[in-house]
Amino acid sequence: MSEETLLYIALFSPIVSSLFAALFGTVPKRVFVGVVTSGLIGLSFLSSLALFIHLQSGSGVVHVQMFDWIMAGDFSVPFGFLVDEVTVTMMLVVSLVSTAVHIYSIGYMEHDKGFNRFFSYLSAFVFSMMFLVMSDNFLGLFIGWEGVGLCSWLLIGFWYHKHSAGWAANEAFIMNRIADLGMLLGIFLIYWTYGSVQYDVVFSAVSEADGEILTWIAIFLFIGAMGKSAQFPLHTWLADAMEGPTPVSALIHAATMVTAGVYLVIRANELFALTPEVGLFIASLGAFVAMFAATMALVNRDIKRIIAYSTLSQLGYMFVAAGLGAYWIALFHLVTHAFFKALLFLGAGNVMHAMNDELNIMKMGGMRKVMGWTAILMLLASLALAGIYPFAGFFSKDKILEVAFDGHYYILWATLWITAGLTAFYSFRVVMLVFFGKERYKDFGFHPHEAHDYMIWAMVPLAVLAVIAGFFEHQFVAFVSNVLPVYEFSEHTHHMVGQLILVTSAIAITGIAIAVFSNMFREGVFSSAFRNTILFKLFDNQYYIPKIYEEVITKPYMELSKVFWEKVDMKIVDASVDGIANILRSTGENTRGMQSGNLSYMLRWMAGGMMLILLFAIVYTYSDVLLNILQGVAK
Amino acid sequence: MITLEHYIVLSTILFAIGMYGVVVRKNLLMLFFSTEIMLNAVNIALAAISNHYGDLTGQMFAFFIIAIAASEVAIGLGLLIIWYKRHGSIDLETLQSMKG
């Protein structure tokens, strides 16, 4: 099969799957909908795999142009797709995680009324994400960008009858729109500067532009990335997005969509490489978010929110690497993170399913006895997340720390180092509270049970990859180095690598140990002294940021909207429209008397009207003569 | 010497008389007379102007109008007689059966 066909299959089988499921959108659950969509997404994965093998054999980048898309004057955008090493990596991750999540969802959504609808949305998301990563121009990327935003909105608000779900969906959508404005401005600037939005055209001419414009382009593009990847200050939507079904959280809000921002920075690496000051800003913000999110995860009691904050934190890590120019390391962490984070979320889904959608980890405990497989899988994922050798997270996270150290950004390094400890602590806090210790769920009358076998099996490939992916580091570098610049460590760092790994592993293990011991002795409950500290309150209330947004933005906006509604809309817009209607109506009311049915009167009106029209005709015809006469009178 | 103006003035006066009749009279028969006067006022004007320009079209039109007026009167009087037989009056005030 030709590469072009493979590309089309990889891209379009998800949309076929989505449309197929949509046919059954309004009818009750049909299991075959889940099976067929999973199969089609799996087909997309196989095509991606074939493309990967094609690229691996060194046969070159696949670049196809389906047709001319936008042609307006000098502006021309073809409908083209590009599969290079970076794209195929993303495609593999997206399609693999999607396949696992699709299969998993057949079990997870089995009692849901919207079973078929769910698969339609989920496949539509996969299509948008594939479109996003495969497009060969910024405009196509933007279409995919908006597509994933739309699907995210649909899926967060999947249980739309719940007020909180609808609210969270809107929050995510609106926050992303704010960031997308920045992204659009960036794309406009790119077109304005380079006269094209094609990657190859733009990147080959990237250094020709003025430095200041380059900086602005980088800033605007990064604002877009900040929204999609939920970086501070646009991060609040991600935790609230956990209102959606858990497979959605695994696929969209952990493994794929939120990494689109990182992908954008990696894709536009030529551009960001020329703006090191923006890169440093990205790295600093990333390190800040890494720590900021980890602290919020420390004290939360909601299993999904903790994992969501850890996603936020790991995205911060990726941005540090991307900002400091180590693009392949960012991509590497993106890949390993996708595996273990999806696994973690699917495990959390199993737990939730067993606990009738209970999210509070304080009500769980000791569940390894009833759901052993889930416990093992979650434990593996947590070890990978904490960065313990030989799990995948160890390799990628450690590389990021080395990069920060290598660039002499010791503050960034220290922040990330402490965060590594926090990460280990909170991920094992979850594991301990959920799977070990006293069986608190019995007090609350829950009867947990293990998930279906095929759900566990869907998770197994992810688990295997979460364990072994790290060992393919060197192959990975060799593979992506065709597209991405290879980050060269200095001699100095090279000697220090051993110590760095030791120090990082030490803090991770310490974090785990604290989590384990505190759970043994205290059942994971924080001491009341700690609970009363300002720090705890800050963490527990998410630094009061949602509250601040509520007070500073939402409420004034509401007030302003009210003013506009009452004063402007009702008093001016509505009043003028109503006024016109009233004039017409009252004219009708007042002249209704003419239609008396009396022929004599009607003849008089007719004669009068005719005279009037004649008069107008005369005045119009002789207007200049009349004007002359009037002027004569005035003199 | 009788010029075009004389004809036009005559036509205007006749038209005004006819119009006045239409507006003021209540008797349906009188209305018919008034409309006939108006039509003939127009005929005079058409014939006179046609003669003035040496173009026969206007006179042709006058003939058409005479023909139409004749048929109109024939139908109109027929209707009028039926109306009178039914209602015993041809006063306009009584013609209000379609009032909404």
Characterise the protein shown here:
By secondary structure, chain A is mainly alpha-helical. Chain A has 26 helices and two strands. In chain A, a hairpin with a 2-residue loop joins strand 1 (62-72) and strand 2 (75-83). In chain A, 49% of the residues are buried. Chain B has 100 residues and is mainly alpha-helical. Chain B has a single domain, classed as Helix Hairpins, CATH 1.10.287.3510. Chain B contains three helices and no strands. Chain B has helices at 4-24, 28-53, 57-87. The longest helix of chain B has 31 residues, at 57-87. Chain B starts with a helix and ends in a 13-residue tail after the last helix. At the A-B interface, helix 25 of A face helix 1 of B.
The helical percent of chain B reads over 70%
**Approximately how much helix is present in the residues of chain A?**
over 70%
Strand content of chain B: under 5%
Weakly predicted, low-confidence segments of chain A: none
In CATH, the topology of chain B is named: Helix Hairpins
Count of separate DSSP helical elements of chain A: 26
- C-alpha termini separation of chain A: 95 Å
Given the helix and strand composition of chain A, which structural class is it? mainly alpha
C-alpha Rg of chain B, in Å?
Answer: 17 Å
For the biggest sheet of chain B, the summary is: none
Secondary structure: number of strands of chain A: 2
How would you summarize this macromolecular structure in one to three sentences?
The complex is a heterodimer of chains A (635) and B (100). By secondary structure, chain A is mainly alpha-helical. Helices cover 74% and strands 3% of the residues of chain A.
Set down the secondary structure blueprint.
The complex is a heterodimer of chains A (635) and B (100).
Chain A: H1 3-23, H2 31-56, E1 62-72, E2 75-83, H3 85-108, H4 115-134, H5 138-156, H6 163-194, H7 199-204, H8 211-228, H9 236-240, H10 246-255, H11 260-267, H12 269-273, H13 276-299, H14 303-323, H15 327-354, H16 372-386, H17 392-406, H18 410-435, H19 453-468, H20 473-480, H21 491-522, H22 528-531, H23 534-540, H24 545-591, H25 599-621, H26 623-634
Antiparallel strand pairs in A: 1-2
Helix pairs in contact in A: 1-2, 1-4, 2-3, 2-4, 3-4, 3-10, 3-15, 3-19, 4-5, 5-6, 5-10, 6-8, 8-11, 10-15, 11-15, 13-14, 13-18, 13-23, 14-15, 14-17, 14-18, 15-16, 15-17, 15-19, 16-18, 16-19, 17-18, 17-21, 18-21
Chain B: H1 4-24, H2 28-53, H3 57-87
